[in-house]
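Quiz preparation item.
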């Protein structure tokens, strides 16, 4: 910053620049005072400060008003540029035009969430933002929050119960649970009771390899427990494992109702009351007023509200 005259910069304020441009335009102090809502004495004081800063009279008094000097004429385009740049900086952000954008959307979440949101998101991009692309990552809770904070992704999508003051949360949808088993499993031959449910062999989905979860905490409250014999980090391996074994799983309802038919699975409502949970879209506070992030959040909310028909129940397109 050795080439910047900090002494002069400290003497400048925006009002001085507006007075200068006003005098260049009107050539009369009274007109500038009326336009800026200042007194004529304030205009005179500002002009004295401008003359001191630029070491030039800037405006000479004539019978018809004030005549700018050569220095004033030379300064005018630069001063106007400074004022316009500052005005644009202080103005509200421009609106986002998805149809013309070539941005890459970056989101992260678990596989069950991406399976719900990515298909309708891709479909909407094809219609309203055909030049944009989508990059999605399968990240756990902590890794996704770090990626948002570091600016590596636009949104982290999942269940976040503690996300700190620098992240903003918007609810996309509320999720509940369903119990899955292979078709013909003895557990589903009769009524699903708490006793038969707790006595079955379970699979658990845990990104960190835990062998206990929300179901275990719920059973513990009523003095019961279950046996978890396998833990997998993703939901689709859980679906595949249940389809090829006598294990049962307790997984998110939206995942089960759409994809369990593909694996030949049956499902029931749990015989215990397991709390619901919200799926949220997290973004960084720095992007709160970013028009792109505002637009993307709206699209994600639209995708989350779609009533999904299970894949096996959807009509098959005729052959081409």
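Solution:
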């Amino acid at each position: 910053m050795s080439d910047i005259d900090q002494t002069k910069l400290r003497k400048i304020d925006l009002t001085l620049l507006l007075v200068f441009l006003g005098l260049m335009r009107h050539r009369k102090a009274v007109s500038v005072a009326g336009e800026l809502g200042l007194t004529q004495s304030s205009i005179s004081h500002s002009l004295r400060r401008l003359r001191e800063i630029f070491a030039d009279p800037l405006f000479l008094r004539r019978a018809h008003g004030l005549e700018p000097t050569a220095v004033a004429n030379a300064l005018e385009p630069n001063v106007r540029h400074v004022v316009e740049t500052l005005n644009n900086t202080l103005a509200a952000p421009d609106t986002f035009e998805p149809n013309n954008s070539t941005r890459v959307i970056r989101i992260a979440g678990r596989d069950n969430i991406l399976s719900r949101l990515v298909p309708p998101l891709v479909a909407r991009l094809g219609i309203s933002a055909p030049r944009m692309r989508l990059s999605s990552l399968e990240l756990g809770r902590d890794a996704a929050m770090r990626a948002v904070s570091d600016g590596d992704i636009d949104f982290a999508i999942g269940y976040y119960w503690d996300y700190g003051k620098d992240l903003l949360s918007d609810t996309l949808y509320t999720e509940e649970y369903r119990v899955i088993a292979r078709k013909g499993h003895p557990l589903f031959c009769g009524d699903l009771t708490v006793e038969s449910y707790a006595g079955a062999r379970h699979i658990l989905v845990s990104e960190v390899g835990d062998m206990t979860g929300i179901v275990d905490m719920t059973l513990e409250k009523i003095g019961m427990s279950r046996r978890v014999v396998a833990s997998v980090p993703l939901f689709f391996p859980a679906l595949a494992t249940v389809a090829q074994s006598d294990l049962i799983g307790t997984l998110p309802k939206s995942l089960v109702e759409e994809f369990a038919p593909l694996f030949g699975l049956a499902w029931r409502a749990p015989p215990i009351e397991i709390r619901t949970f919200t799926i949220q879209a997290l973004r960084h506070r720095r992007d709160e007023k970013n028009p792109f992030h505002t637009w993307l959040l709206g699209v994600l909310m639209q995708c989350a509200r779609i009533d999904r028909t299970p894949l096996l129940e959807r009509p098959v397109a005729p052959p081409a």
